[in-house]
Design brief:
Number of strands: 7
CATH class: Alpha Beta
Strand order of the largest sheet: 3-2-1-4-5-7-6
Strand content: 15-25%
Order of helices and strands: HHHEHEHEEHEHHEE
Structural class: alpha/beta
Number of helices: 8
Distance between the termini: 32 Å
Number of domains: 1
CATH architecture: 3-Layer(aba) Sandwich
Helix content: 40-55%
Largest sheet: 7 strands, mixed
Length: 246
């Protein structure tokens, strides 16, 4: 499936309301985010996810990290406080331009525009940590599945990937049910959001069993899958942690 609509949506966001597009708090729409507060949320989130991997007993080098769906660099800048080098990847040139403006870590943080459904823009086997949240859910599931597989291609042996994506009903590829899913998610929901005056972002999911299969077939080993952001409340939204097999 084409990523053209996703790119078009986030190019517009990057020009008009980039911080809200990354972290969509209602009260911060129309460029009302305080920049310091915005980036402070990234530092808190990165501390949380590194504590999470430590609690799971995972050890990793802190040499290179990849921020997939980096937007304006909210998490890339935070990761640079822990890793020697960080690469942020995003589909929108306008977002990456803002990220470069916000960069406070010089050449230790590099931002890359990527409009393809792979990560050929970065080298394989080069990263100790891959992190992605509130990104895959906005991408058609076929592309998200390929990106998840790519996380393990770009990781070093023993490297850690943490990523989030909602779960839901599994559809047989090519079935009428799958076609109906795409009509609802790609067209009807977009139209409904436009009618309501809301940003026409897509929301997608991949069934948990399919995510687990992708991880395993891509050379990963699943360590944990936790309802996110609040494990105490059951929602079909999972944060996955996996390592690349040695």
């Amino acid at each position: 499936m084409s990523l053209a609509y996703v790119k078009k949506t986030y190019e517009k966001f990057g020009r008009e309301d980039p911080l809200y597009a990354v972290l969509s708090r209602k009260e911060c729409r129309h460029n009302r985010w305080d920049t310091d507060e915005f980036f402070a949320t990234g530092r808190a989130e990165v501390r949380d996810v590194l504590d999470y991997t430590a609690r799971l007993g995972l050890r990793m080098d802190f040499s290179r990290a990849l921020d997939f769906g980096c937007g304006v660099g909210r998490l890339s800048q935070a990761l640079a406080e822990h890793f020697q080098n960080v690469v942020g990847v995003d589909i929108a040139e306008s977002m990456v331009a803002k990220a470069r403006d916000f960069n406070r870590h010089g050449p230790r943080v590099r931002y890359v525009v990527n409009s393809s459904d792979d990560l050929a823009c970065v080298e394989g086997g080069a990263f100790d940590f891959v992190y992605s949240v509130i990104t895959l859910q906005h991408i058609p599931p076929e592309a998200s599945a390929r990106y998840i597989a790519e996380f393990f291609r770009v990781l070093r042996a023993g490297g850690v990937a943490v990523f989030q994506i909602p779960s839901g009903r599994r559809y047989r590829p090519g079935s009428l049910s799958e076609m109906a899913y795409h009509v609802r998610r790609l067209y009807l929901r977009r139209l409904w959001k436009i009618v309501r005056g809301r940003p026409p972002v897509e929301i997608h999911y991949i069934a948990r069993e399919d995510v687990e299969r992708i991880v395993e077939s891509s050379g990963g080993r699943l360590i944990d899958a936790t309802c996110w952001p609040d494990p105490a409340k059951f929602k079909p939204n999972f944060r996955y942690c996996a390592v690349k097999k040695v």
